[in-house]
Every structure is written in C-alpha cells, then in structure tokens.
C-alpha cells in the first residue's frame, strides 16, 4: 500500500514533498508524484496537503 496524489486536486504547492520523511515524493515538470517503492504509508504528506489531494491507494 502506498499513498497517491490526485492530480486533479493538486495545486503544485510542494508542501507534501517537503513533509515526507523519506523523500518519496518528487516533482517533474510541475507534476508531483509518490514513489510507491519508497512510501512507508505514514500519512504525513496527506496531513500537509491543503487540497486534501493525497490519500491511501
Ligand atoms: S505517506 Fe509518508 S512516506 Fe508515503 S509519501 Fe506520504 S509522507 Fe512520504
Ligand atoms: S501538498 Fe497537495 S496540493 Fe501541494 S503539491 Fe502536494 S499534493 Fe499537490
């Protein structure tokens, strides 16, 4: 299980990337994504997102 970002809700603020303790979130061409192989499903990023765009898969 990993957390995923709803791209339709994301406003590309970067808060989630800054909050992830293991650096599992990256940005490429303005699109933020979570690497499921690195995600620990801790939920910290979901709590940091102002859009509530992150949820458990
Ligand atoms: S759930 Fe935790 S480990 Fe996974 S991307 Fe979010 S902050 Fe990082
Ligand atoms: S915190 Fe939420 S709105 Fe901001 S970049 Fe991450 S997913 Fe997008």
Description:
This protein is α+β, with helices and mostly antiparallel strands and 57 residues long. It has a single domain (3-56), classed as Alpha-Beta Plaits (2-Layer Sandwich). It contains 2 helices and 4 strands; from the N terminus they run E-H-E-E-H-E. It has a two-stranded antiparallel sheet with strand order 1-4. A two-stranded antiparallel sheet has the order 2-3. A hairpin with a 2-residue loop joins strand 2 and strand 3. The longest helix is centred in the first third of the chain and has 5 residues, at 15-19. 19% of the residues are buried. The mean pLDDT is 97. One iron/sulfur cluster binds at residues 3, 19-20, 22, 24-25, 34, 39-45. Residues 3, 19-20, 22, 24-25, 34, 39-45 line the site of one iron/sulfur cluster (SF4).
Defining traits:
57 residues; alpha+beta; Alpha-Beta Plaits; two-stranded antiparallel sheet; 18% helix; 25% strand; binds iron/sulfur cluster
Brief sketch in words of this structure:
The protein is an alpha+beta fold and 57 residues long. Helix content is 18%, strand content 25%. It has a single domain (3-56), classed as 2-Layer Sandwich (Alpha-Beta Plaits).
